[in-house]
Amino acid sequence: MLLPADRRQSGQGMVEYALILVLVSIVVIVILLTMGNQIANVFSNVVAALG
Question: Would you say residue 31 lies in a domain?
Answer without folding.
Answer: yes
